[in-house]
Fold each of these.
Amino acid sequence: MTGERTWRAGGCHCGAVRFEAELEPVVEAQTCNCSMCAKTGFVHVIVPESRFRLTQGSDALTTYTFNTGVARHLFCSVCGVKAFYRPRSNPDGWSVNARCLDDAEGLDVRIEAFDGRNWEANAHSLAHLSREDQ
């Protein structure tokens, strides 16, 4: 899945929070059936730390944690949208919501199901996504 990466902008519904993620032309994404993702409709695109930048709205973010407290679910305090977060499976990277990208034109987003209800048995399958060589 390598190719020329491009920075893609995105953000929350109201525009208070903005981000950019550097993405390959072919993007591996996951839908998850865990209690959090199933309720929010989050489509995960996990990127390394170096391929994510918050460009606006750090002061508008609010954090929600549960269970182990490792994942940092970040929501816009104005509109409530979670455009990205620090995932438990990849605490060295970021999970961007593909649905919050401004423009996905030219991206081949390949969405696979991830069994987050059985997270402990399956999380290892996501670990490679935040590596710099991906």
Amino acid sequence: MNQPSIGYSELKWRCRRGMLELDILLNTYLEHNYTSMTAAQGDVFNTLLDYPDQVLFDLLMGKMQSSNADITELVTKIQEIHQH
């Protein structure tokens, strides 16, 4: 399988945010999905982690939607994992 180009430890570190809600959502997604992520999925997740905390929070809480289809798909997956 074509694993993400960025390692688990680095992504885990990047999931540490200024808001507890973000830490929980992002880390839960990473823990459930890292081993099955493709390189492209890892790149999209890494791109999502570049967003400022407030934008991330608004996206994950459904208060806004990204114009990037890959980001929107990822946000939906993160939300689904958290709901279960």
Amino acid sequence: MRKAVQIVIILVLFASCGPKPSKSIAHVTKEIDTYILKVDAKTNLKEERTEGALTDAEGFKDIGKFKYTVYFDEKTNELYKIRNIEMTDKTISETYYFKDDDLVRIDTDIKGVSGQMYVQKYKFISEHKTDAKTQKLLLEKARRFQKNFNKEHE
């Protein structure tokens, strides 16, 4: 009997100290959505806008214009979101959301099609309707915007 109790105790300890199951994608996306609602409701975030011309690949011909806005906590320099709009023959809108210096969601409106892409550690964790080339471009833009923000707010 005593040996059986010891075995049960060992099994309970082993189970409680073992690896924790990871959260489901549905749970993670729900947490991100809740976080984004809080970010969008914040009225005390500092906004910095940058506007300019978009040029062709050679950099000579103007093909449109861009405007992006950075939203962050002025006291802590914590980045919350970046909204980017590019206007050429079509308008592209992207909003990048950050939490604890990590990209968590990208909201897009590309060619009139809206989408939300959930991200962890710069990898997509949800189903999305964009092609691999567009996904790569969005992640590169997010990194570039975040790097630029960090450089300006060191």
